[in-house]
Design brief:
It is a single chain. With 233 residues, this protein is an alpha+beta fold. The chain has a seven-stranded mixed β-sheet, sandwiched between helices. Helix 2 runs antiparallel to helix 4 and helix 2 packs across helix 5. The longest helix is centred in the N-terminal third of the chain and has 18 residues. The chain is globular. The structure holds biotinyl-5-AMP. Biotinyl-5-AMP binds next to helix 1, strand 3, strand 6 and strand 7.
Length: 233
């Protein structure tokens, strides 16, 4: 896959979006050393220390994908596998956060690009690699903090690019993705609070469905939540 590297951009997701809107048919990766307007989900901000972390958005053109959240979940599992290959143990937090010892090491921002039909999917990944300090404002961790050594940013980039090609080539078994994610999801079976756009629910996080949604038992009812933020209650 072609990889385009930039020093400073607002958000690599915007570059990937342009790739898809321009109707390019091949997948591509857009990498930046620093983002001035890095985005998280729900209008949140993704911060970085310039040059220290992997900030990449994969543009995956095509209309045949599993839904964008499930592709985002696959990305989280692939990040987890990469961490495992370094000897690090990881946890998953629905819908697609990756944690080490309870601290966030990576976040994923999947976006579907629709023009009447699905044109493609963007998978934005922020993986903290060599950042040493994290402000209280976003208490995260990095590979360097956990391993006590630096890792070249190309290493996770190459690993993830291969995995994204598998998504593009429809070689990913999403049932396995959900299963792996579930096994790493520490809040499963726990009383949780879920915050979505302008709604919130409390209940027991009971399962992750095959489509990646979260099944919550609340007040005698089952509800499926497609996206939101889940915290321990
Ligand atoms: C995410 O959002 O976790 C998705 C992050 C995706 C970032 C990538 S970087 C490349 C691509 N281009 C973009 O513009 N975005 C993608 P969310 O679940 O909403 O988490 C955001 C929250 O994580 C913030 O509100 C902070 O509390 C925290 N946070 C921000 N920066 C962080 C960091 N570097 N490490 C750990 N936590 C962070």
């Amino acid at each position: 896959m072609d990889i385009y590297t930039f020093d400073v951009v607002e958000s690599t997701n915007d570059l990937a979006r342009t790739h898809i809107i321009d109707r390019k048919s091949e997948p591509a990766a857009f990498v930046a050393k620093h983002q001035t307007m890095g985005r998280g989900r729900m209008c949140r901000v993704w911060k970085d220390e310039p040059g220290m972390n992997l900030l990449v958005s994969f543009a995956l053109p095509g209309n045949y994908y599993a839904n964008p959240p499930l592709v985002g979940m696959a990305a989280a599992v692939f990040i987890g596998e990469y961490l495992e290959s370094l000897g690090l143990s990881w946890e998953a937090k629905w819908p697609n956060d990756v944690l080490i010892n309870g601290k966030k090491v990576a976040g994923v921002l999947p976006e579907g690009i629709w023009q009447d039909t699905l044109q493609g999917i963007i998978v934005g990944i922020g993986l903290n690699v060599n950042q040493s300090e994290f402000p209280e404002e976003y208490p995260g961790t990095s590979i360097k903090k956990e391993l006590q050594r630096e890792v070249a940013l190309e290493q996770p980039l190459t690993y993830l690019a291969k995995r994204m090609e598998q998504i593009y080539n429809q070689e990913v078994d999403y049932k396995t993705v959900v299963q792996v994610f579930k096994n790493r999801f520490a809040l499963l079976g726990k009383q949780v609070k879920i915050l979505s756009k302008d709604e919130s629910w409390e209940g027991i996080a009971s399962n992750i469905n095959d489509d990646g949604s979260l099944l919550v038992a609340t007040g005698g009812k089952w509800i499926n939540i497609n996206w939101g933020e889940v915290t321990l209650r």
